[in-house]
C-alpha cells in the first residue's frame, strides 16, 4: 500500500479542527504528523479570558490530551518549532534538528500580536495577550501589583481588562478610537458598553493615542504617557492592538503572501496555496480572497473544506465567511454581524432604551438584512445571522423583524421551498457562541 505523508504545522484550534475533520474521512495509507510549538496539546484559546478572570482553570480549556493523538494513530511533536520547509525535497525541519518528510503540508501557524513601535515597549511588565504563558504572567502580575493599563479597547483588550479587574487590579483602558469596540459596535452600543464596564470599576481614556511607556530605575514600566501629556500609572501594561498572520515560515518557503505577509498566505477556495498545491493553509495565517480572518468560525469552516481535499474527495469549496462577534464577559451581552454601520443606500431599524440597557439596530439594503448590532438582549443574534447569511428578502416581514427574526426566516424559507431551519436553543444574556469568538491576539 502506498503511504501518503501529511504534516500539519500548528496544533492550535485551526490545526486540531482540520485533523478532527480529516480523521473520519481518512483514506488508507495516510500517515499524519503534527508539530506544535507550545509544550502542551491544543487548547481553547478563546477561553483564556475566563481563566484570567478566575472563572475557569487551565485544565478546563484543554481540547485533546496527548493520548488522543496516539489513539488516532497520529504522531504528535510538542515544543517543536518548525523553522524551515524544503519544498523541493518536501521536508520540514525543526529548530531542535527534528525532521519529517511530507507529501501534503498544512500550515496552521496562527497569528502573532501586533506590538506598536512605542518607546519603552521593551520594559519589564509590558506584554501582549496571546497564549497560556501570557495568561499565567498576567495572573502573577495581578498578585504582585495593583495598577494596570490595557492599550486597546477591542474585544480582547476588554476581556483582558475585565479579567485583571476581577483579580483586584485598578485598570484603565486606553483606546485610540472615540468609542469601545468600534469594529464590532456602533457609537450608541459602545457607549452602553463603556457605562456598564465603568460600573464594574474600569476606567477609560478614549480617543487617546499612546505616546510612550515610561520605566523606573529597575527597568520596569511605571506609567503610560498619552499624546495629550497625561501619564497613567501602571506596573503592568497589556497591549491588545490587533494581530498579524504568522507567515514568516511561509515567506521563507517562497509562498505568495498578501501585503508582504501581513495579510496571510494566499489560498484558493480549496485552501491550497496559490504557489504550491501541495501546501494548504487554514485559520489566521490564511488569506482567502484578500481576507485573513481572526475568528474561530472561519477557521473551522476552512478546516472542513481542507480536510475534504486532504482525504481525496475534492468536492468542497470555501466561499468565505459571514462572521459575528460576542464579548466573553459575564453579565455583558452584545452581538454584531455583517454591515451593522449602514450608510448610503441602507435603511436602519433601531430600538434604543438606555434606561433598560437595551439597544438593537438592524440594517437593510435592497429589502434584505445585511447587518445587526445588539446590546443587552442578544437572544435573537443567531437567527439574525442566519438571515444575513441567507440573504432572505424581508419586505413582507418587516414588522416582525425586530422581535421575531426566526419567524421571518421561516417565512422566507417556506416561500423558497427549502426545508425549514433548525432553531437552536435560545441564548441566555452574556452567553458566548464559541464558534464566533475572536481569537486572542
TrEMBL record:
One of its GO terms (molecular function) is oxidoreductase activity. The keyword Transcription regulation does not apply. Its cofactor is FAD. Residues 324-391 form the NADH-rubredoxin oxidoreductase C-terminal domain. SUPFAM superfamilies: FAD/NAD(P)-binding domain (SSF51905). Keywords: FAD, Flavoprotein. Residues 5-302 form the FAD/NAD(P)-binding domain. Belongs to the FAD-dependent oxidoreductase family. This is NAD(P)/FAD-dependent oxidoreductase. The lineage of its organism: Bacteria, Pseudomonadati, Pseudomonadota, Betaproteobacteria, Burkholderiales.
